[in-house]
Design goal:
Layout (H helix, E strand, L loop, with lengths): L30 E4 L3 E5 L3 E6 L3 E12 L5 E15 L4 E14 L6 H7 L8 E4 H5 L24 E5 L4 E4 L6 E3 L6 E3 L6 E4 L4 E6 L2 E5 L8 E3 L5 H6 L5 H5 L13 E4 L3 E5 L6 E3 L6 E3 L6 E4 L2 E6 L2 E5 L7 E2 L27 H11 L2 E6 H5 L11 E3 L6 E3 L5 E5 L2 E6 L2 E5 L7 E2 L22 E7 L5 E6 L6 E3 L4 E3 L8 E4 L5 E4 L19 E3 L2 E2 L4 E2 L6 E2 L13 H5 L8 H11 L5 E3 L5 E5 L2 E6 L2 E4 H8 L14 H6 L4 H16 L12
Length: about 675
């Protein structure tokens, strides 16, 4: 079967002017062009190829009416165009449009009609809305490979805790990393997003929970008591600005209401809080139900529980039993209504429109341009002498004691930073843009914390002064990966943090990208990736000595992406209602034409499809009565002679494709309720 992608707009009309990102008028079909020789009516393109998102190609159904004779000729124009995607603005620029073929269903078509059909494609560059192109993908469209190395993603569940009362998760990234606080007898835990302290003299632990102080002699779940008595060392912390959170909670006071208890975990954990016993409500078909009194995506079907985490489905026979990875999601999940409050999960249900759009979104290319000056300003930092270790399955080595992702290959050093590559002859630079990198980079396995760098590729060198390098990356660099049927967030593997202590016991700590559990409570210093020598620093700076040193804007660094995206997936928002209404109107326009992979033209009218042959429009039923079947197999009940069967060229698979196309045209705008479109 030929894979096809159906788009509502691609090749813009000659003379219509450049389309703006918000100009939905150019999405209306049919379009009519008047010329001295006659008129040209153009219908929705049907696109069957978009090679690496650089070259798009497809058929455009057309009707040509010659003014002198009044004759009407129906056919299709095959066109090709170069594309450049601006994902930030969510628009696509089309250029170098050209016609590669023109076919008509009639024979002896005058040259004037053929010449007029060429006007269906403009030669001028145009800008079209990306989401208009993504919203109506054919069912069998498969986006290009996301990266060179698919990687072995981990689909095994983390620790999953389900509770029916208000509960919180105190997650520690492995064993507690204790940092002494100078001038006090306190240690604080640097590898958690909670304000968590140890008082060695008494052996007690102290946690600040919803503004109230709680204490326990063991760092464990349960047994924490609320207190208004703290060691005097906490008074020291409350005097300055370095510990603002502590200052705001000092002196300690007993709250009017006890804060919610918390689960302590030293491993990747997901906490599912249900407000009392699960309340179930029907959703979709097949007996599927969802739990209404939880924010988690928790469902029940045929006596089993289903849970969506980081784009992955897990199931269990009981909420307090072990969970397992779901190999094949029941089809009932695809019946979840697109307008339902839980419709967000459709992006992770194989075969849905939303899952196809999510996969395509994850493979869409983005670009970074870096100059020699940018590279020269980089300062890669190490805790001590640079240390490297081999990466399994490659001939690369990765730096251990640097928060930057530095690799050694054949005595050269390569740094991936902010979705760009740099190279140097020494591990600490000076750095210059890397116009090429070793192929071994793309062999880094998903089990290595640097796997995300395999999604960044040098693609060009701009001839400018100073010289600039162009790099291409996609959502794999930011932690969203395609599985071939859906998108998942995070590799699923746990990467142990790097921890080192200086000679007097002060720790250095940084983490790697994670998949589950890190909730980012918003306490600022307690939720940073790096710690060194007595204080946390923000994502813009790292301290490897007593002075913070800038490391550039790390908005592209996957370690800094909001982990709630890994928990919930895409944070879709509704587009402007007026733009959405306008787009709906264009989708519902009276233009139900279709061109198959051979350029044959069909239309949908009064509930049935017709094909245009040399003798005019004939319904499918009429063609079946005339010819009985097709050269691809029997369509009607009577098999016709071979020569007559060949006259009817309709493929039964095309019939189904046309039906899906028509149905999608009527409802595809719903996907735009879940895709961000920038103004």
């Amino acid at each position: 079967m030929i894979r096809q992608l159906v788009l509502t707009t691609l090749f813009i009309l000659s003379g219509s002017g450049a389309a703006l990102a918000g100009d939905f008028q150019d999405l209306e079909y049919p379009k009519t062009i008047e010329r001295d020789e006659g008129s040209l009516q153009i219908h929705h393109p049907v696109i069957d190829a978009w090679d690496d998102y650089r070259e798009v190609e497809g058929w455009i159904p057309v009707e040509v009416t010659l003014r002198e004779s009044g004759s009407v000729y129906v056919g299709a124009v095959r066109a090709r165009a170069s594309t450049s995607i601006d994902l930030a603005k969510r628009v696509v620029t089309l250029s170098e449009q050209r016609v590669t073929e023109v076919v008509f269903s009639q024979t002896d078509v005058p040259q004037a009609a053929r010449d007029l059909a060429l006007d269906a494609v403009s030669s001028e560059p145009h800008v079209v809305v990306l989401d208009a192109m993504l919203g109506v993908l054919a069912d069998d469209f498969k986006p290009p490979a996301q990266g060179r190395n698919p990687g072995l993603l981990n689909d095994q569940p983390p620790r999953i805790v389900v509770t029916t009362q208000p509960t919180q998760l105190l997650l520690i990234d492995g064993q507690p990393v204790l940092a002494p606080i100078s001038g006090t007898g306190l240690n604080f835990v640097v590898n958690t997003d909670w304000p968590l302290f140890q008082h060695p003299e008494s052996g007690n632990w102290y946690a600040l929970n919803e503004g109230a102080w709680q204490t326990q002699s063991l760092l464990a779940t349960g047994g924490w008591t609320t207190t208004d008595q703290l060691p005097d060392d906490f008074r020291q912390l409350s005097l300055g600005d370095a510990w603002k959170t502590i200052r705001d909670a000092y002196p300690p006071r007993l709250p009017e209401h006890e804060p919610a208890p918390f689960v302590v975990s030293l491993e990747p954990t997901e906490l599912i809080v249900v407000d009392g016993d699960p309340k179930l409500s029907a959703i979709g078909e097949g007996g599927l139900e969802y739990v209404t009194n939880t924010s988690a995506d928790l469902f029940r079907l045929n006596g089993r529980w289903y849970l969506l985490l980081a784009g992955r489905w897990f199931d269990s026979d009981a909420l307090d039993h072990a969970w397992r990875s779901v190999e094949k999601l029941p089809s009932a999940f695809s019946s979840i209504p697109e307008t339902h409050a839980r419709a967000r999960v459709r992006a992770y249900v194989p075969g849905t429109i939303e899952s196809m759009v999510a996969m395509m979104e994850a493979t869409l290319p983005q670009q970074r341009v870096v100059s020699e000056e940018d590279a020269a300003q980089l300062n890669v930092l190490y805790a001590g002498t640079p240390q490297f270790e081999p990466i399994e399955g490659t001939n690369l080595e990765r730096a251990l004691n640097s928060p930057g992702y530095v690799f050694r290959h054949n005595n050269y050093y390569y740094l991936c930073h902010d979705a760009a590559w740099f190279m140097a002859r020494e591990p600490d630079g000076p750095w210059s843009p890397a116009y090429r990198v070793p192929e071994a980079i793309y062999d880094i396995p998903a089990t290595d914390p640097a796997y995300f760098v395999t999604f960044v590729t040098p693609v060009a060198q701009e001839q400018a002064k100073p010289k600039k390098a162009v790099f291409q990356y996609n959502s794999g660099y930011l932690g969203a990966f395609t599985t071939g049927v859906t998108v998942v967030h995070g590799t699923g593997w746990y990467y142990a943090p790097w921890i080192w202590y200086d000679p007097i016991g002060r720790p250095v700590y940084w983490s790697h990208p994670f998949t589950y559990g890190w909730h980012m409570r918003g306490y600022g210093t307690y939720s940073d990736r790096f710690y060194h020598y007595g204080a946390h620093w923000s994502r813009q700076t790292i301290a490897i000595d007593n002075t913070p040193v800038g490391f550039g804007n790390s908005a592209y660094d996957p370690a800094f992406q909001d982990p709630r995206l890994a928990r919930r997936g895409y944070d879709y928002s509704t587009i402007d209602e007026n733009r959405n209404a306008e787009y709906v109107r264009t989708l519902n326009a009276d233009d139900d034409y279709y061109a198959d992979s051979q350029g044959n033209v069909y239309r949908h009218d009064d509930g049935q499809w017709s094909q245009h042959t040399g003798n005019g429009w004939s319904t499918m039923a009429e063609l079946e009565r005339q010819y009985g079947g097709s050269r691809y197999g029997t369509v009607g009940e009577v098999e016709a002679p071979q020569q007559q069967s060949q006259a009817y060229k309709q493929n039964p698979e095309d019939i189904e494709r046309m039906k899906r196309y028509h149905e999608r045209r009527a409802r595809s705008y719903n996907i735009h309720g879940y895709v961000t479109v920038y103004r």
